[in-house]
């Protein structure tokens, strides 16, 4: 790939110490991009592709002076780099709990409709749950179908952070947050849990994501503290198995049920001016060159919070590198310099 002289000049002049005074859009073109790819907030991102567009969704949040309140915001892009804010993907908040936020949505296309599995919870909630909303368009509006289950009904504490997975016509839901990651089959219509509940990973993980690559299932999860601004220790770990039900082991052979397990994918930048608390990754996206890309959130260490105190979890993008059969972000850290952008054929 040949870059322009201007683009090479930008790279040569790049100094990590002044990244945060620049507008990322100004350095973004058809060849290069720079993190963050969307701000001020898109926490716990999920992404799908429909036609020529990608759609990303995030947790309900109040963007304060940088955008106000948003109920499951949705943004749109053709290239994963240049994003347009579309609005709220839910027209009305679910009412099957008295109070709580709509967190960590997972959106997927099922047949000709779009399913959004979501968490309904508050901090310290004794009985959070997972619900389902359905739309005919990726832009929404997603209409609530009610709960799939609550923590008390399913017998798993802190039942949030859903992820939908389908294989051989079987529908599965993976979920959990610091009380284990669990797997169960869903009914044919995807609205109810069926059968056994299988524990896949220990109490050190949340925000599950599962992908099949080759002969292995790779189970991603986030560990550490998500929401302490520049002091957040959030990071992404991974294990793999040849069976969807496990056992999942890391690169050292440790079972993910062991709370000291997990192969590192990405962590906070070690520099003072990087991103803190990278995690809760989206689905992997493959570009036209066969490169894999990962969206996830993180906080600029120099501007980790909004004026209203909300964690300013911006959207980050990086190439996922596979080495010796294991995925990771380059240097295990979010990129802060301009990087070659993903390429998608028209």
Assign the structural class, choosing from mainly alpha, mainly beta, alpha/beta, alpha+beta, or little secondary structure: mainly beta
Number of spatially distinct domains: 1
Total of DSSP H or I helical runs spanning 4+ residues: 2
Number of distinct beta strands? 25
Major sheet characteristics:
5 strands, antiparallel
H/E element sequence: HEEEEEEEEEEEHEEEEEEEEEEEEEE
Assigned CATH architecture: 5 Propeller
Describe this structure in words.
Keywords: Glycosidase, Hydrolase. This is Arabinan endo-1,5-alpha-L-arabinosidase. Belongs to the glycosyl hydrolase 43 family. GO terms for molecular function: hydrolase activity, hydrolyzing O-glycosyl compounds. It holds the Pfam family Glyco_hydro_43. The strands form seven sheets. Strands 20, 21, 22, 23 and 24 form a five-stranded antiparallel β-sheet that branches. A four-stranded antiparallel β-sheet has the order 2-3-6-7, with no helix packed on it. Strands 8-9-10-11 form a four-stranded antiparallel β-sheet. It starts with a helix and ends in a 6-residue tail after the last strand. A hairpin with a 2-residue loop joins strand 16 and strand 17. The protein has one domain (5-340): 5 Propeller (Tachylectin-2, Chain A). It has helices at residues 5-13, 151-154; strands at 32-33, 46-50, 53-57, 61-62, 69-70, 73-77, 84-88, 101-110, 113-121, 129-135, 143-150, 163-167, 170-175, 181-186, 193-201, 206-213, 216-223, 235-241, 263-266, 275-279, 284-286, 292-300, 314-323, 326-329, 339-340. It is built from two helices and 25 strands. With 346 residues, the chain is mostly beta strands.
């Amino acid at each position: 790939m040949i870059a322009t002289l201007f683009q090479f000049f930008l790279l040569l002049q790049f100094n990590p110490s002044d990244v945060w005074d620049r507008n990322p859009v100004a350095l973004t073109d058809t060849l290069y991009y720079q993190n963050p790819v969307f701000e001020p907030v898109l926490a716990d991102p999920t992404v799908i592709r429909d036609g020529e567009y990608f759609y990303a969704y995030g947790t309900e949040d109040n963007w304060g002076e940088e955008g106000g309140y948003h109920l499951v915001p949705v943004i749109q892009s053709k290239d994963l780099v240049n994003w347009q804010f579309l609005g709220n993907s839910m027209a009305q908040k679910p009412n099957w709990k008295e109070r709580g936020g709509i967190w960590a949505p997972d959106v997927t296309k099922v047949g000709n409709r779009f399913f959004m599995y979501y968490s309904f919870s508050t901090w310290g909630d004794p009985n959070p749950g997972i619900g389902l909303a359905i739309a005919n368009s990726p832009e929404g509006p997603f209409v609530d179908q009610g709960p799939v289950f609550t923590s008390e009904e399913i017998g798993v504490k802190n039942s949030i952070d859903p992820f939908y997975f389908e294989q051989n016509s079987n529908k599965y839901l993976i979920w959990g947050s610091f009380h284990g990651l669990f797997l169960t089959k869903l009914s044919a219509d995807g609205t109810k849990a069926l059968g056994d509940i299988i524990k896949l990973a220990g109490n050190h993980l949340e925000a599950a994501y599962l992908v099949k690559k080759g002969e292995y299932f790779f189970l991603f999860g986030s560990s550490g503290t998500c929401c302490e601004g520049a002091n957040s220790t959030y990071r992404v770990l991974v294990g793999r198995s040849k069976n969807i039900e496990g056992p999942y082991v890391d690169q050292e052979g440790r079972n993910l049920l062991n709370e000291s397990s997990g192969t590192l994918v990405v962590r906070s930048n070690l520099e003072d001016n990087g991103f803190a608390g990278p995690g809760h990754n989206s689905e992997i996206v493959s570009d036209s060159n066969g490169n894999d890309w990962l969206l996830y959130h993180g906080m600029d260490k120099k501007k980790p919070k909004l004026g209203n105190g909300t964690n300013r979890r911006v959207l980050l993008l990086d190439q996922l590198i596979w080495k010796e059969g294991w995925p990771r972000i380059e240097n295990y850290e979010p990129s802060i310099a301009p990087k070659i952008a993903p390429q998608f054929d028209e």
